[in-house]
């Protein structure tokens, strides 16, 4: 009976696994709440292949209202000020008619949906920005999305580090705090600089936006749902661009459709760190269009989506087929 | 060997139906002028039957044989030490070429990966994708890069894509940033597209 002493060990291992999984879920829940409840300020780095930048962030939650200012600390002072999920101002070249900004709602992390498409496990403990963190791995259940490693602050549940990994385990991008303080920033720190252009103004200047129903995709990676759609007229090229945005609770991709008007254009594939862009030439009864899929998804998936774009409305919910 | 058997073999060779043994037998017997006469007669008959053009009495084979007989045996060249060194040098350069080829091939891979990247602060970019992430090649490119696409895959494909894709990428990043409140990550992605 040499096995008997091992039995408790085996059993404890058996029980520990689900307990661990639950633990990971709890941490994700805390992450969802932390963004809405925790004031903080700090600096973080963002790195992807070919780009490295440092940013400052001031995040204040007061009477349930979130106000946040982000500014790039090196190179161009790219700045964003957000209040309650609405972007107040942005520097740099704002794409005109940035779509339906007004109906932006704070999207909470939907745990159930996340669990359908990722397996969530707690893989260990570590330290980030001098603070103890727990490591949560979100491993995709299919090949249509990337894996994420989240390092959540033990004290607050804030994401202090986030890595995006492809199916080979290669690092696609890194987001990591280097300094964090759990003190609410004051008004002066949340005040936008003169460079920050209000988004509302850009919105007024843009042409009217009507919902796009003219297009759908025959195939979508399972779990992705339409988040928003818009049609805008490009002021430079005068062509009408339909944009659709999909998400699976964690990952997002956009589809842009633009009539070619007889221009001869080659298909293009582009990988920019975590972001992929695939352009495909499609022939429709109304003339040729260019379908471009942009998002943090694998190249093959983007390609398949681009090839599945069809004119007209979807007759059935289009994402049933895996 | 009987005369008939040889003639049969001759006929078979002419019709391209001879087996290895027959062919050998015919070749052995070919020094005999009688056999050669038979051969040319067969050729005439065959040419008549097929209505081919025929140049009778053209005996290339004997001419070639005569020429071969007159040929001098080549004098054996004495090999000097330089020759073997030369051979070694050839072998070495082939090795170098192969190694360089492999290296270049691998480098192509890397360059492919790097090319897909955007400009930024190349001196700071760490090896994100494993492997020898030497960004030398692509640092050069960033010098005359004019936009996110300048040193991307799009180089050499001017026009439509160059105009549209940067806008699409930015729009995607900004919309994702505007709609998400979970983390500053989409904002950082959008900011990295602004970097020139």
Structural features, described:
The complex is a heterodimer of chains A (322) and B (196). By secondary structure, chain A is of the alpha+beta class. Chain A is built from 5 helices and 19 strands. The N and C termini of chain A lie far apart (49 Å). Residues 96-106, 201-208 and 316-322 of chain A have low confidence and may be disordered. Chain B is mainly α and 196 residues long. Chain B has helices spanning 3-14, 20-28, 33-50, 60-70, 81-115, 136-143, 160-179, 185-194.
Q: What's the helix and strand layout?
A:
The complex is a heterodimer of chains A (322) and B (196).
Chain A: H1 6-37, E1 40-48, E2 51-62, E3 65-72, E4 79-83, E5 86-90, H2 111-117, E6 118-128, E7 131-140, E8 147-153, E9 159-165, E10 171-181, H3 187-190, E11 197-198, H4 199-205, E12 215-217, E13 225-233, E14 240-247, E15 252-259, E16 268-272, E17 275-284, E18 287-295, H5 299-307, E19 309-311
Antiparallel strand pairs in A: 1-2, 1-10, 2-3, 3-4, 4-5, 5-11, 6-7, 7-8, 8-9, 9-10, 12-19, 13-14, 14-15, 15-18, 16-17, 17-18
Chain B: H1 3-14, H2 20-28, H3 33-50, H4 60-70, H5 81-115, H6 136-143, H7 160-179, H8 185-194
Helix pairs in contact in B: 1-2, 1-3, 7-8
What is this entry, summarized?
The complex is a heterodimer of chains A (322) and B (196). Chain A is 18% helix and 44% strand.
Average pLDDT figure of chain B: 67
Tell me which oligomeric state these chains represent: heterodimer
Helix and strand pattern of chain B: HHHHHHHH
**What is the number of helices of chain B?**
8
Rg of chain A is 22 Å
Low-confidence parts of chain B = 107-157
Fraction of helical residues of chain B: 55-70%
Radius of gyration of chain B equals 38 Å
Class inferred from helices and paired strands of chain B: mainly alpha
Q: Outline of chain B, from the CA principal axes?
A: elongated
Q: Mind summarizing the main beta sheet of chain B?
A: none
**Residue-averaged pLDDT of chain A:** 80
Distance between the termini of chain A: 49 Å
Give the largest chain-chain interface (CB within 8 Å). A-B, 78 and 59 residues
**What can be said about the biggest beta sheet of chain A?**
11 strands, antiparallel
Number of strands of chain B: 0
Shape descriptor of chain A reads globular
